[in-house]
Amino acid sequence: METPDLRVNRQGDDVDIEWRLPVDVGAPALQMLVLRNTPEGIAAEPRTLPVPSTAGRTRVAVPGLHSLRVAAGRLREGRFIPIVRPSLLEVPRQQLDQMPGAVRHDDGLHG
């Protein structure tokens, strides 16, 4: 893993997060924007998780997970400062096909 780097792997409602920040980063943290399926629709939940070191891995369980965005960085004066972010982790298409009322977007533009 390079420095800095962040890897996010989803397995159902479980998300494995592996991060590596420069060793001189004080107060390392992860920040997540979690989107969950609820009976009322999609709920957005921002979460900030202080982590004990500049490199590591953790697993987060999110019941009803739709998608999430994760960043690794530092906390300074109570605010999160991102250092590295991967792309959006979305619902796999096969799960989307099984969701009643789900809207699926394909890769093309239509005029």
Provide a quick synopsis of the model:
This protein has 111 residues and is mainly β.
What is the topological layout?
Elements: E1 5-11, E2 14-20, E3 28-38, E4 41-50, E5 55-61, E6 65-76, E7 79-84, H1 93-97
Antiparallel strand pairs: 1-2, 2-5, 3-4, 3-6, 6-7
Q: By helix and strand content, what is the structural category?
A: mainly beta
Report how far the terminal alpha carbons are from each other: 42 Å
Overall geometric form: globular
Estimate what percentage of residues fall within beta strands. over 45%
As a percent range, the share of helical residues equals under 10%
List the defining traits of the structure above:
single chain; globular; three-stranded antiparallel beta sheet; 5% helix; four-stranded antiparallel beta sheet; disordered C terminus; mainly beta
Structure notes:
The protein is mainly beta. Helices cover 5% and strands 54% of the residues. The chain has one helix at residues 93-97; strands spanning 5-11, 14-20, 28-38, 41-50, 55-61, 65-76, 79-84. The chain has a 4-stranded antiparallel β-sheet with strand order 4-3-6-7, with no helix packed on it. The chain has a 3-stranded antiparallel β-sheet with strand order 1-2-5, with no helix packed on it. β6 (65-76) and β7 form a beta hairpin. The longest helix has 5 residues, at 93-97.
